[in-house]
């Protein structure tokens, strides 16, 4: 699953991206580094099962710090969106090329209202961020309309003459856009358009369809950024009325904290409601001021910086993922190298035991016999639907080694 960080220029996307892809603890080089210039590994935070199961774990694919599991996920820092990007304006093509690959979108909005439509800096409170949401929706919808329009007649005629399936035809056409069949079907259903007569759809029908398709295939949430600025509260209330999940945050505060933690100046775990200064004397004037700012303007008022909340909301609510821990030995809760609770997998809600086996390795899936719930030692059949924080062993006729 890949999440795109989107929005107009200067809303704080790159700050958000830098903060979330920076590991706040000194760590040996594992597969946790930036992949490409604008792609990076961030972490969702969940309560690890190690404390509950009273074991010392040795994570491999993730981190566990004081009982908090940090599970790597992939983010793209998209180019800033400018009006009429869908017509190729500004970096429009780059922007849309990144949206194309994303499974969901975090829309970073300048909730302080301190940037105009095009992202030029202005006085806080002078711009209504609600407009930015409508603008981003329209750009993506128009881009989809443009793609669909290109050979709509040809597709429509082919479906009508061969009595083909419009969903299949569109799925093929949109194959590079990370769009599955379900959202296409859903968009046809909600618009009530006739899938057997696509050539009869009007331009307006096609736009309606594209708009539904966007909502179903690129689910979006709002990160109401710059919450450290005083003009933010009213705007957050307005944003909340749009029907999206809105999480207020301060990317800048999070970046300050993660840098300080990485440099060993403070103890801070992303998502924590506080931080501890390790050695007061080592701090420069500037660092002291920045940390005091975060304490007063963020923690006292909002509880956390909100940034980890944005990521967790994106994966656990928007994409409805759950965390599952595979083990090979249910007594010791370890893998074949005796590593205890080595992996935490993020999988879509609804994943069955057998599907999970396939996600680990195709051999495990093909040879699937049953799974075992490590907590209860009960056998689980192939159709068992996994629950959040399940710890399971897969018993398979085919070994993965
Ligand atoms: N007050 C405040 N400013 C922020 C915050 N996040 C980013 N900024 C500032 O907003 C400006 C644009 O940030 P940047 O991350 O480059 O935005 P991008 O163009 O969306 O990638 C910079 O001056 C940042 O320091 C925040 O949480 N609070
Ligand atoms: Mg940027």
The termini sit apart by: 26 Å
Please report which band the strand proportion falls in: under 5%, 5-15%, 15-25%, 25-35%, 35-45% or over 45%: 15-25%
By DSSP, the count of extended strands is 14
Structural class designation:
alpha/beta
SSE string, helix = H, strand = E?
EHEEEHEHHHHHEHEHEEHHEEHHEEE
Helix coverage percent: 25-40%
CATH class value of the domain at 2-38 and 78-137 and 220-316 = Alpha Beta
Quick synopsis:
With 401 residues, this protein is α/β, with parallel strands linked by helices.
Structure write-up:
By secondary structure, the protein is α/β, with parallel strands linked by helices. Among the domains are: 2-38 and 78-137 and 220-316, 3-Layer(aba) Sandwich (Rossmann fold); 324-396, Beta-grasp domain (Ubiquitin-like (UB roll)). The chain has helices spanning 13-21, 92-101, 129-150, 152-162, 166-173, 181-191, 203-217, 232-240, 251-262, 285-302, 307-318, 353-360, 362-366; strands at 2-6, 39-47, 63-65, 68-77, 104-110, 220-225, 246-248, 266-267, 276-277, 321-326, 345-348, 368-373, 379-380, 390-396. The strands form three sheets. Strands 1, 2, 3, 4, 5, 6 and 7 form a seven-stranded mixed sheet that branches. Strands 11-10-14-12-13 form a five-stranded mixed sheet. Helix 1 (13-21) runs parallel beside helix 9, helix 6 (181-191) packs across helix 7 (203-217) and helix 9 (251-262) packs across helix 10 (285-302). The protein is flat and about 70 Å long. The two termini are 26 Å apart. Bound molecules: guanosine-5'-diphosphate (GDP) and magnesium ion. Guanosine-5'-diphosphate (GDP) binds next to helix 1 and helix 9.
């Amino acid at each position: 699953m890949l999440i795109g960080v989107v929005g107009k220029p200067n809303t704080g996307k790159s700050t958000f991206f830098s903060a979330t892809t920076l590991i706040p603890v000194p760590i040996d080089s594992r597969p946790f580094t930036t992949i490409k210039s604008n792609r990076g590994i961030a972490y969702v935070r969940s309560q690890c099962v190690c404390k509950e199961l009273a074991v010392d774990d040795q994570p491999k694919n993730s981190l566990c710090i004081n009982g908090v599991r940090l599970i790597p996920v992939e983010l793209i820092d998209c180019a800033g969106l400018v009006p009429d990007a869908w017509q190729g304006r500004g970096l429009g093509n780059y922007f849309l090329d990144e949206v194309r690959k994303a499974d969901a979108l975090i829309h970073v909005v300048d909730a302080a209202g301190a940037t105009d439509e095009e992202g030029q800096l202005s006085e806080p409170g002078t711009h209504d961020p609600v407009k930015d949401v409508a603008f981003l929706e329209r750009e993506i919808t128009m881009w989809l309309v443009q793609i669909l329009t290109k050979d709509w007649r040809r597709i429509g005629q082919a479906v009508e003459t061969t009595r083909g399936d419009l969903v299949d035809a569109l799925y093929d056409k949109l194959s590079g856009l990370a769009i599955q069949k379900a959202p296409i079907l859903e968009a046809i259903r909600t618009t009530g358009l006739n899938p057997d007569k696509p050539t009869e759809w009007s331009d307006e029908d096609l736009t309606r369809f594209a708009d539904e398709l966007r909502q179903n295939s690129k689910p979006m949430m709002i990160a109401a950024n710059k919450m450290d600025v005083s003009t933010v509260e009213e705007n957050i209330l307005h944003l909340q009325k749009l029907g999206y999940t809105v999480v207020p945050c301060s990317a800048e505060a999070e970046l300050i904290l993660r840098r300080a933690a990485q440099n060993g100046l403070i103890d801070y775990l992303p998502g924590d409601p506080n931080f501890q200064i390790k050695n007061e004397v080592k701090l420069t004037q500037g660092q002291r001021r920045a940390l005091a700012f975060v304490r007063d303007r963020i923690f006292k008022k909002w509880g956390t910086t909100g940034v980890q909340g944005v990521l967790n909301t994106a994966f656990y609510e928007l994409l409805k993922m759950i965390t599952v821990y595979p083990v090979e030995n249910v007594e010791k809760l370890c893998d074949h190298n005796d590593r205890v609770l080595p992996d935490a997998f993020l999988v879509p809600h609804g994943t069955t035991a057998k599907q999970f086996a396939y996600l680990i390795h195709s051999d495990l899936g093909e040879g699937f016999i049953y799974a075992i719930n490590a907590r209860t030692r009960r056998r689980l059949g192939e159709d068992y639907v996994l629950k959040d924080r399940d710890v399971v062993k897969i018993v398979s006729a085919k070994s993965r080694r």
